[in-house]
Structures are given as C-alpha cells and as structure tokens.
Design goal:
alpha+beta; 5 helices; globular; about 35% helix
Length: about 160
C-alpha cells in the first residue's frame, strides 16, 4: 500500500467511461454506508448514477467538477462539487458526494479531495461551501469539521454542514 503522500487528485474527463463507472459505484457505496445497505443499494439504478456523473461533466448542464483521487494509477476515491443555490437563492459551492475506498481511508485522501473541491469553488467565486449528510454519519461530520465546517441546519434525518470559504 502507498502512504498518504503518494496520492493525487485530478479532474475526471468525460471520455473516461471506466472512471465514470467507478465514481457511480462509489456513489452507490456511499448511499449504502449512509442509508443502510438495503435502502442505499435500491435508491438509484447504476445507470442513473452513471448518468448523474455525466451530467456533472457536461458544462451545458452544470457548473461542476468530478475530482478523482488516485495512487499508483489506481482509483482511491472521488468527490463531486458543483455550484448550487441555497433556499434563499444565493449561489453556494456544494459537495454532492465524497467517497474514499475503505482500504485507502485515514491516509489524507479525503482531506485532499476537500481541499481541491474548495479551491475549485473559490475559482468559481463561491464564498460558502456546504454538504448534506445523515445526522448520524459521524465519520463525514468529523472530516468536514476538521476543515472548519459546522452544522448549519437540520431537516429530518439530514444535516447541512457549512463553512465560509
């Protein structure tokens, strides 16, 4: 295994079908971890998830980036960031998903993905970054809190973590 200093983050290219499939698989596994295996596995089809990744890669549809983390040429995780709007209509930077392969966790990869995502948001003129997750997804809470995020809202079973950029 590589150490935490041997990974990189790059932007996914729309022509990388294998990587699109890996990101979709990571999205499904994120849902399974957060919502439970049965609910997370059946919430969206694989085709829907792959289409969602492609939408984030199409500048005609979204101001977004899909960021891949890699080590020794192998996929280790991803995050999807986009410009969105909050309930008041102001533009915000949104982390729509963050995933690191379990065997690559605790090596700084998620921190690198968050930093790269925040840098992109700043380049897009965003002053606020948010993510939404389950109220009991404490692992993700801790990750984002380490980057200065705090719970800004609670709705049902979800929370919004937010910070000024």
């Amino acid at each position: 295994m590589q150490d935490e200093d041997c990974h990189s983050v790059r932007v996914l290219d729309a022509a990388e079908e294998d990587a699109i499939a890996r990101v979709a698989d990571g999205m499904r596994r994120t849902l399974m971890e957060v919502l439970g295996e049965e609910r997370g596995a059946t919430l969206y089809t694989r085709e829907w998830l792959e289409d969602r990744v492609r939408q984030h890669l199409d500048c005609r549809i979204a101001r977004a980036r899909v960021l891949l983390a890699e080590a020794a040429g192998a996929y280790t995780g991803h995050c999807i960031v986009r410009v969105d709007a909050d309930e008041d209509g102001r533009e915000i930077g949104l982390f729509s998903t963050t995933w690191v392969e379990p065997e690559w966790r605790r090596r700084g990869i998620a921190h690198s993905l968050l930093s790269a995502g925040e840098a992109w948001m700043l380049s897009e003129g965003m002053s606020i970054a948010v993510t939404y997750t389950a109220h009991d997804n404490l692992r993700l809470h801790r990750l984002y809190e380490a980057h200065g995020y705090a719970i800004a809202a609670r709705t049902g079973e979800f929370v919004r973590l937010e910070r000024a950029l």
